[in-house]
Amino acid sequence: MPSTRPNAAKRKLRENGVVTTISGNLTSEIIDFMGPLGFDAVWIECEHGGVTWEQLGDMTRACDLWGLTPITRVNSNEPWLITRTLDRGSMGIVTPHVNSPADAEKAMQSSKYAPLGYRGMFGGRQSYGVTDYFQQANEQTMVIVLLEEAEALQNLDEILKVDYIDVFFVAPSDLAQTMGHIGNPGHPEVQQAIDRAIDRIVSSGRTAGTLVNDDNAAAYVEKGVRFLLTSYNSWLSRSATEFLGKIEAATR
Fold it and tell me: Which residues are catalytic?
């Protein structure tokens, strides 16, 4: 009997591995380029940016080609939106602004079929050729909640009690804004809040995620973070600056 495509990122978390996720100004062609590089998952950005439903289908299909897990951030914690995003081939949902256990429960239930939730009964692209998709989908679908406001950290202990959440992701920039340090996620108060949240997530036996860069990724792994998100935009910017600097120096 045909099976659903395995969710490589979810499987790696089950094996206590560290999941590496790439984001940036992505298209299906860029996902094809990055496919052989070794990342576990792709973060498709649909809260910000202009990804259309048709483009989302193409991008998730490119992920399938390379065995990457297509994870999509939706712009609202709404069942219809999450359902349609999964129908377009996403294998993971990132829900923004989860500030309470009720928010987390809603995100989870919107992503899962009964008996766990109430995802709309339509399989979409990932179901094609799978005769028992509705029985398999819950096992393969990934649910990530964004903890990006001070309120979320105040309610963190209760949020962590919600079952079937794969990753509790601490988002630095929006958290900094709600703590009064807009544009400064590196502020000591923000960094302390992030570290405390990660410690609470890890200590509870749940999976912590956060945004990382070349300089702090290893440190976050040492703190127990097992879902790492980074953007290739910073690599491109840094390399371009270095290249143009060398040309300028050579032409003086």
Answer: 48
